[in-house]
Design brief:
The complex is a heterodimer of chains A (109) and B (116).
Chain A: E1 9-13, E2 18-23, E3 32-38, E4 45-50, E5 55-56, E6 61-64, E7 70-75, E8 84-91, E9 103-108
Parallel strand pairs in A: 1-9
Antiparallel strand pairs in A: 2-7, 3-4, 3-8, 5-6, 6-7, 8-9
Chain B: E1 4-7, E2 10-13, E3 19-25, E4 32-38, E5 45-51, E6 57-58, E7 67-73, E8 76-81, E9 90-96, E10 111-115
Parallel strand pairs in B: 2-10
Antiparallel strand pairs in B: 1-3, 3-8, 4-5, 4-9, 5-6, 7-8, 9-10
The chains are: A mainly beta (109), B mainly beta (116).
């Protein structure tokens, strides 16, 4: 799996939007961009994924740069329950999922 | 979505004993299971990939004789930590490999192992 780069930590105020960036300059044409998050003492949870077009679901939005070398996970209104470590992962096959350090998001009441 | 369970959710054992962790896929069949461990304040590290009916594939640096993986059925995979030591204390997480790149990957809730 290709490598991704994320900030170690970010802060957000409650009820404000959060933009979590991810750089993946070595992404290949067949790599899908996946986002997962992990709450304390829990297994990771799927958030969203996409290939080229921006994606929306009930949890978040994924904005993918035109050259696909970066993407941004958008939480439209952060809540205290969104405080977690967010992982940006590239996947190109049915192969294993490799996690990077991720971004630890803190939400301030 | 797919449901993955792990048992036990936490376990405390004495040094030198063996501990078995079960991972069950409750509403689907998983031919492949990924096993991860996570130390405090660190990311998940892939330990091994198990395939139903065949030997597991271990990542570099993971001792296959210490971490025994059995994937005897499509709904159950087990990880046994043999002769556990305090440095094996960690959070162990399983994940069935079924969705591929086009779908979401599901993860178990994790098992917290503490070795005294």
């Amino acid at each position: 799996d290709a490598k991704t780069t994320q900030p170690n930590s970010m802060e957000s105020n409650e009820e404000e939007p959060v933009h979590l960036p991810c750089n993946h300059s070595t992404i290949s044409g067949t790599d899908y961009i996946h986002w997962y998050r992990q709450l304390p003492s829990q297994g990771p949870e799927y958030v969203i994924h996409g290939l080229t077009s921006n994606v929306n679901n009930r949890m978040a939005s994924l904005a993918i740069a035109e050259d696909r070398k970066s993407s941004t996970l958008i939480l439209h209104r952060a809540t205290l329950r969104d405080a977690a470590v967010y992982y940006c992962i590239l996947r190109s096959s049915y192969d294993k999922v490799i996690f990077g350090p991720g971004t630890s998001l803190s939400v301030i009441p | 979505g797919a449901v993955v369970s792990q048992h036990p959710s936490w376990v405390i054992c004495k040094s030198g004993t063996s501990v078995k962790i079960e991972c069950r896929s409750l509403d689907f069949q998983a031919t492949t299971m990924f096993w991860y461990r996570q130390f405090p304040k660190q990311s998940l590290m892939l330990m091994a990939t198990s395939n139903e009916g065949s030997k597991a594939t271990y990542e570099q640096g993971v001792e296959k004789d210490k971490f025994l993986i059995n994937h005897a059925s499509l709904t159950l995979s087990t990880l046994t930590v043999t002769s556990a030591h305090p440095e094996d204390s960690s959070f162990y997480i399983c994940s069935p490999g079924l969705a591929g790149v086009k779908g979401e990957q599901f993860f178990g809730p994790g098992t917290r192992l503490t070795v005294l």
